[in-house]
Design a protein that fits this description.
Blueprint (H helix, E strand, L loop, with lengths): L9 H8 L4 H8 L6 E7 L5 E12 L2 E6 L16 E5 L3 E4 L18 H15 L13
Antiparallel strand pairs: 1-2, 1-5, 2-3, 3-4
Helix pairs in contact: 2-3
Length: about 140
Amino acid sequence: MKLPIVFEEIEELRRRQGIVDAVLKVDIAQLQPGNKVKLSLQLDRNGFETVVVCITSIHERTLRGKLVKKPKALGLRTLDVGSFLNFQSSHIHSIVGRNNSSACMDRSIPMPSNRELLRAARVEAELECETPSPRIRNYVG
């Protein structure tokens, strides 16, 4: 029986720590098949191993990719080079390089413009500072 792979919820960890990485969000939105990302896979209750995955397909926030290198941990011994992993964009730890796709496909991530970065930062700030709708009032009586 294969045990399920558990991914570290990187986006949630960043949110709890107050980390806003607008550049990473823009980069994730621009990922294409052939790009490589780092994911952290759970080993046990307290441990994770970071692995590199080459993206093979993307459907909305769900990505699929092949493991680039065999994990070292015994707890992940069922995974081998080329094993497929399905994961969410919220699991992405980081993106490996910019022009790193030659081993998978001949594509790369274009660098976002300053306008895209500012727009992403503005959207992030708005989400962080959302105020209640003026139509909703709390009455203390």
